[in-house]
Design a protein that fits this description.
The chain has 175 residues and is mainly beta. It is 5% helix and 55% strand. It has an 8-stranded antiparallel beta barrel.
Length: 175
Amino acid sequence: MSTTTVTATKWAIDPTHSEVSFKVKHLVISTVTGNFKSFEGGAESDSDDFQGAEISFAAHIASIDTNQSDRDNHLKSADFFDAEKYPKMTFTGILEGDKLKGELTIKETTKDVELSADFGGIVQDPYGQTKAGFELEGKISRKEFGLTWNAVTEAGSVVVSDQVRILANIQIVKQ
């Protein structure tokens, strides 16, 4: 009787070729885009198609950037992310088909989240590194994660919608 041991390949996010952003409606009439400038994570996979790969990710809340410093500071405050008390937002999950399914934790709240995952393939770059790419997209309810601050205009419109779109273009490098 022979036994075969499969060793998972480890991959790390290449932050210089990746971006993590979100979009949320403002005043119900336009969309504001924000990014996390600092994040890390990776994958462990037994196959080149990444099926069943274990994914981990963390975004540093203090790195949030919406191209407007007052708004960024408000998002970092206790009204929203409370970056001082909860410096990271985390995700752990598994790639299943064209879905990345897992648990997202913001502040003290963890919820199941499903993102669509478009696998771009694997290539070797000019420096001999093996890289893979993914485009991820999904939606969450910010209120389910305790991000409940809002205001109402005189006309009765809410300032910030509940639904937040998550978009990520991720390149990972084989370790």
